[in-house]
Structure formats: structure tokens, C-alpha cells
Amino acid sequence: MQILFSAVRLAKEWLRFALFTLLLFLLVRGLLLEAFTIPTSSMEGTLLVGDFLFVNKALYGAEIPGTGTRLLAFRDPARGDVVVFRPPHDRERVYVKRVVGVPGDTLEMKHKTLFLNGDPQEEGYARHSDKRGDAVHPKMKWQSDFLAAAESWGRYAPSRDTWGPIVVPSGRFFVLGDNRDNSEDSRYWGFIGRDDIKGHPWLVYLSLEAEDGGSEGWLKRVRWDRVGRRVR
């Protein structure tokens, strides 16, 4: 009988431990950290396809699951931050890009060079790989409503590499992929809202090369030089 009581007591202790661990996991995942995988090459140079990231959800104020409310943020998104967010045109997906414009900024791009409030930017993280000619892009006409110069409305013809100047409205942010010639970003579908930003990628905890059809196992695909790398 004593053995039975001991077994029941041990089972209760293990159950309490399991429940505590589960609650702790849910708390961390919901309010502090969440895993994210890079599926496309739009941030190539900074983040690679096959990078597995921990996302810091607390930095900008984590959303309490199921409530629609947020905890207090440590700070607002700033220029240069890499952010994870839901884009305005596809609410079911999560993207990762870099903030290049905050509310009140005037942005312009001339032949691949980004201008912020009239000043050209030195963007060491930006990558340009397409040397072909640029072309007017019909999806970018939305920018006409935010042009800094109203007289340009009628003749505005933006392209991937040359557009603006546009003014970022209150409560909105403009994001670009670091792989500028191969990124679907704010140039095409517009600004993102403050509440759309879910967190900041913090750390690469695993990075895998694409499968080559071999049978050597996943360990052979690990990019060991990227494991533990901070996202900047």
C-alpha cells in the first residue's frame, strides 16, 4: 500500500511539473519569443532561406493571445530594425523586412539609391544583383496618394528602382527587403501599421542548406557559421 501511495504522489508531482512546463512554454511563446523560418530570398545577405529564427515579441509590445490587446512596448520600431509583420495584402502570412521609413519621413529612391528626408542613405546591408534596365511597375501607383509634391500626381510613373518622394503617414511604416532587386515589399503593397508588427528577429538558432536529394542527413546541411548569429 505504501508503494501505491508513493507512486500516486510521484505521478501528481510529475503532472504538476508537466502543467507548469506547458504553461511556461505558452507564456514564453505568446509574450516573449516565437520561432520563425525564412522561406524566401528577399532578405538575402542578412537572412538566408533555411534560417530558423527566434523572434523577440516583447520589444514592440507583445499581443496577449485571444484578447487583441498589447503589453507595454520597450520601444517603437525604428529605422534599420528588421521586423516580422503581417502585410496589408495578405493577412494570413507573416513577412520579415527592414524598416526604412517611420511616420513623417519622406522617402525616395533614385536608380537604386534610397533617400531619406532628402539625404542619400549608406545601406551596407542592401544587396543589388539585377543589372538589367528598370521598368514602370503598375502595382506601385498606390504611391500617388502619398506623394510629397501634388503636381506630380498626373505624371507619376514609379518603378522598382526609382520612385517617390512619398511621405509616410502617422502610425505607418515603410519596409524593404535587403535583397532589393528580388523583394516584394512596401514599394508594391504599401505601408504597414504599427499593430501589424509582431516582433524583431533576434537570433538564428539553426540554418539549413536546401536539400540536394542526397541521403547524408540533415546534419550535413547545417550552416554552422550562422548558428547563434544575431540579426542586425
Relevant terms:
seven-stranded antiparallel beta sheet; alpha+beta; four-stranded antiparallel beta sheet; Umud Fragment, subunit A; 232 residues; 24% strand
What topology does this entry show?
Elements: H1 2-32, E1 33-37, E2 51-56, E3 82-85, E4 95-101, E5 106-110, E6 113-116, E7 119-120, E8 163-167, E9 172-176, H2 186-189, E10 192-193, E11 197-207
By secondary-structure content and strand pairing, the structural class works out as alpha+beta
SSE succession:
HEEEEEEEEEHEE
Q: Approximately how much beta-strand content do the residues carry?
A: 15-25%
What is the molecular shape?
A: globular
- Report the biggest beta sheet as strand number plus sense, adding barrel if it closes: 7 strands, antiparallel
Low-confidence stretches: 17-31
How much is the average pLDDT?
84
Which architecture name does CATH use? Answer: Ribbon
CATH class: Mainly Beta
- For the secondary structure, the number of strands is 11
Radius of gyration over C-alpha positions, nearest whole angstrom: 23 Å
CATH topology: Umud Fragment, subunit A
Describe this structure in words.
Helix content is 15%, strand content 24%. By secondary structure, the chain is α+β, with helices and mostly antiparallel strands. It has a single domain (2-221), classed as Umud Fragment, subunit A. The strands form two sheets. Strands 1-2-11-3-4-9-10 form a seven-stranded antiparallel β-sheet. A four-stranded antiparallel β-sheet has the order 7-6-5-8, with no helix packed on it. It is globular, with a radius of gyration of 23 Å.
